[in-house]
Amino acid sequence: MELHQLRYAVAVADTGSFTAAAEHLLVAQSGVSAQVRKLERELGLTLFERSTRHVRLTPVGERILTRAREALSAVDAVGETAAAARGLVIGELRVGTVTGLGWDPLFDAVAAIHQAHPGVDLRLVEGTSQDLFAQLRDGGLDLIVAAWAGRTPEDVSIRMVVEDPLVVVVAPGHPWARRARVQPRELRRTSLICLPPGTGARSALDSVAARDAVEFDVRWEVSTPSFVRRLAARGVGVGVVSATTATGWSEVAIVPLADPAARSSLGVAWRGTSPSPAVRALLAQLPDS
């Protein structure tokens, strides 16, 4: 068993295919496939279920890959410790953000790290908050900017960015456009435009529905805030997003939702209390609160 075999297997698990893993690693796909098969033969186990449509970890593969990540992290830590002693910051820094994030300090920080620490292999992906937290916890990501509703996650380190009330967004000619607020119960009578489950604003809305034992008609479930804005502006439904998300939306009317509990939080999260030098370098570039 060799370290590069573990790295190849982890890359396949993270990207979901041998082709994407090869692109990520900048090696030939045939090399990735051959080394993963060799690893499986040496272990006497099948790590991946393979088909023409997907590549998926087997149950035992999930357990093996957890240990592989731990082993690779330990090896990487040796190099990072040595580099830190020489005043350098190196290593892989995998950052995840909610889709369509508009928080400029993150992009400023990424640019600063890219410029000041060329030895850091910095990568950025988007996703739903739920998926980002899952990837953070299993080691697939090192730092995320994600949202949640309700209690602050307790199993990761958090730096709060903003606590955000929900708002509704409607076309300028909508009957609610000049309202001071909208009651949550009024949302039952309209077609809603929302982000998918696993996002902060949707989790907050679902919490309201569960608390009040009502069902909302999410007719338009879209992946990015810009879709919410465009559809609401054309009068096809009522959008529900966080207030910060809707900042600067000029072609729609933005009306607060009259429920102080209907809110989501956005924050920076990372694992443990002793982050890697690369994570510390990125955190140092981000606002404290």
Automatic annotation (TrEMBL):
The keyword Transcription regulation applies. It comes from Branchiibius hedensis. PROSITE patterns: HTH_LYSR. The keyword Transcription applies. This is DNA-binding transcriptional regulator, LysR family. InterPro entries: LysR_HTH_N, LysR_subst-bd, WH-like_DNA-bd_sf, WH_DNA-bd_sf. Pfam families: HTH_1 (PF00126), LysR_substrate (PF03466). Belongs to the LysR transcriptional regulatory family. Residues 1-58 form the HTH lysR-type domain. Keywords: DNA-binding, Transcription, Transcription regulation. One of its GO terms (molecular function) is DNA binding. The lineage of its organism: Bacteria, Bacillati, Actinomycetota, Actinomycetes, Micrococcales.
